Amino acid sequence: LPTSTSPDSAMSNEIRLTSNSFLVFSLLETMGEATPYALKNVIADWGFWSLHHAQIYSEPQRLAKAGYLSERQEEGGRRRRYYAITDMGRKALKEWLGDPSCEADELRDLASLKLFFGADPKPLARVQLPARQAKLAEYEAQREAFDTLSPSDYAAIPGVALVLDAGIRHERVWVRFWERLIEED
Amino acid sequence: LPTSTSPDSAMSNEIRLTSNSFLVFSLLETMGEATPYALKNVIADWGFWSLHHAQIYSEPQRLAKAGYLSERQEEGGRRRRYYAITDMGRKALKEWLGDPSCEADELRDLASLKLFFGADPKPLARVQLPARQAKLAEYEAQREAFDTLSPSDYAAIPGVALVLDAGIRHERVWVRFWERLIEED
DNA sequence: TGAAGCATGTAATTTGTTACATGATTGG
DNA sequence: CCAATCATGTAACAAATTACATGCTTCA
């Protein structure tokens, strides 16, 4: 006799969890239930990690289908979708945060790739310098804002300050780099 | 009467040129005719920009179909494919190098994303620090090697030194960053 | 009250990545 | 002469990007 039918009615096909998945987990962990649009707005403020519009909608769907998020849709109106992290998601997030191994990133900067291949430095520098200065200013402003936050704010965790500091130092390197190329003759 | 048949026998459908395309163009411009495998080996030495194996084979094919490269295949043996840049490709490369506008990249570092979301800094630092130190050492070695090269070497163009210097400065920032996190208590 | 723009989503296309597959070469 | 590894490529899949589509709000 056959054994009882396997319960593959379950929602969770295995899926691969990417950095985007953990991004969503982390945000939902601190924000509670949220719409993709709300996630998008938080991410948009950062400047050191982004996610495309279309992915902000598709990634939570994917995660929900696999059981890492719960999904609830409004009945009337715009039928917005609200997502929240489940215990399964929380567990995955915790593991990821607890695992210290991850690839160190490449530089992968387009402007310096052009430089590498012989582009004329000055025109490049004249475009890159103000862009980098603007980014630096933005990070510095965020850093100051952080220092005046109440600790209950979602972002008021020590890692935030650390990462902003790292961002600031990197932008300073770029600013000096392009400045020097402009000055030279 | 109908006009003469339009010559859509031509090879070139329009394709989008990406940073990978220009990478291939630049390499072929200096290396002359080369196989994907040869390109791969040059890129592998760098550490600041990479291309996956599979793309190193597919990208030149794509570019050749559109007319930016010429393609020649060995008759016997492995039937290697050799590519070379055409005038059309050279023109596209020149335009790209001449255009100083390009997006400034994000930090997009996985380890600091974890930090941002509250991961414990020390275990992260203990993994990241040696990785960054190794990369720094590698860049510095390359930089020294560069200084002793003959100017006829394919890589002996000023941009190379500039980009290595940029890489070195960035890695130093990371090294100090993670060092400090280890020292703290 | 209708135009502008914000909010919300899906579809199509292109890229990137992993996994597989197999032909040559070389050193033991 | 055979095992290891280098060299070469394809197929299947996953992710990112662009383009499209349309419902709500708000303010002139």
Strand content of chain A: 5-15%
Which residue ranges of chain A are poorly predicted, with pLDDT under 50 across at least 5 consecutive positions? 1-12
State the separation between the terminal residues of chain A, measured CA to CA. Answer: 87 Å
Q: State the helical fraction of chain A.
A: 55-70%
* Count of discrete alpha- or pi-helical segments spanning 4 or more residues of chain A: 7
What quaternary form is this? homodimer
One letter per element, helices H and strands E, the order of chain A comes to HHHEEHHHH
Anisotropy-based shape of chain A: elongated
Question: Tell me about the biggest sheet of chain A?
Answer: 2 strands, antiparallel
Rg of chain A over CA atoms, rounded to whole Å, is 22 Å
Report the structural category of chain A: mainly alpha
Largest interface: A-B, 57 and 57 residues
Tally of extended strands of chain A? 2
Mean pLDDT of chain A: 87
Give the strand line-up of the largest sheet of chain A. 1-2
How are the elements arranged and paired?
Two copies of one chain form a homodimer.
Chain A: H1 19-31, H2 36-44, H3 53-65, E1 69-73, E2 81-85, H4 87-98, H5 110-116, H6 121-147, H7 158-183
Antiparallel strand pairs in A: 1-2
Chain A binds a DNA duplex (28 and 28 nucleotides) through helix 3.
Describe this structure in words.
The structure is a homodimer of 185-residue chains. Chain A contains 7 helices and 2 strands. The first copy, chain A, has helices at 19-31, 36-44, 53-65, 87-98, 110-116, 121-147, 158-183, and strands spanning 69-73, 81-85. In chain A, helix 1 crosses helix 4 and helix 6 packs antiparallel against helix 7. Chain A is elongated, with a radius of gyration of 22 Å. Chains A and B meet through helix 1, helix 4, helix 5, helix 6 and helix 7 of A and helix 1, helix 4, helix 5, helix 6 and helix 7 of B. Chain A binds a DNA duplex (28 and 28 nucleotides) through helix 3.
